[in-house]
Amino acid sequence: MSIERLNPDTVYKPNKGIYTQVIKASGTQVHVAGLVPWTVDNELVGKDDVAAQVGQILANVENSLAAAGAGKSDVVRINVYTVDVARYIAEGAPVLIEFFGDTKPVSTTVEVSRLVHPDWLVEIEVTAVIGG
């Protein structure tokens, strides 16, 4: 597997260092559906707590990736859907930054009017690359 993370000098810098601007990767793609703040028993974590919801989602990401033989350092793209971008950036993004450390994926964050369940504040989908 080959993953190269780039922040070119010819493009603006990632907001608050949350993501990487460009990733060049080769290998097998692993796509993880939008994950939500539920435990394995379908219990909500963090009813009105963005950080707790992001933490549970990232635990779900880690478990989902492991099932495919991947880890968080293999993640090349995330799409974040949130009902409140300002709250996500202030409360959820720091959890995400800590989770990925120096292996930040490219990222898109979108504010939506609502998610499927009325108590979900955030949903995150992930693409990883392994092998190759």
Walk me through what this model shows.
With 132 residues, this protein is α+β, with helices and mostly antiparallel strands. It is built from two helices and six strands; from the N terminus they run βββαβαββ. A four-stranded mixed β-sheet has the order 3-6-4-5. A two-stranded antiparallel sheet has the order 1-2. α1 crosses α2 (85-100). The longest helix is centred in the middle third of the chain and has 18 residues, at 50-67. The protein is globular and about 40 Å long.
The shape, in one word, is globular
Spatial order of the strands forming the largest sheet: 3-6-4-5
User: Can you count the beta strands?
Assistant: 6
DSSP strand content = 25-35%
Distance between termini?
Answer: 4 Å
Order of helices and strands: EEEHEHEE
User: Would you tell me the overall average pLDDT?
Assistant: 95
Enumerate the spans where pLDDT stays under 50 for 5 or more consecutive residues.
Answer: none
Give Rg in angstroms.
14 Å
- Percentage of residues assigned to helices: 25-40%
Largest β-sheet summary: 4 strands, mixed
So how many helices?
Answer: 2
Structural class: alpha+beta
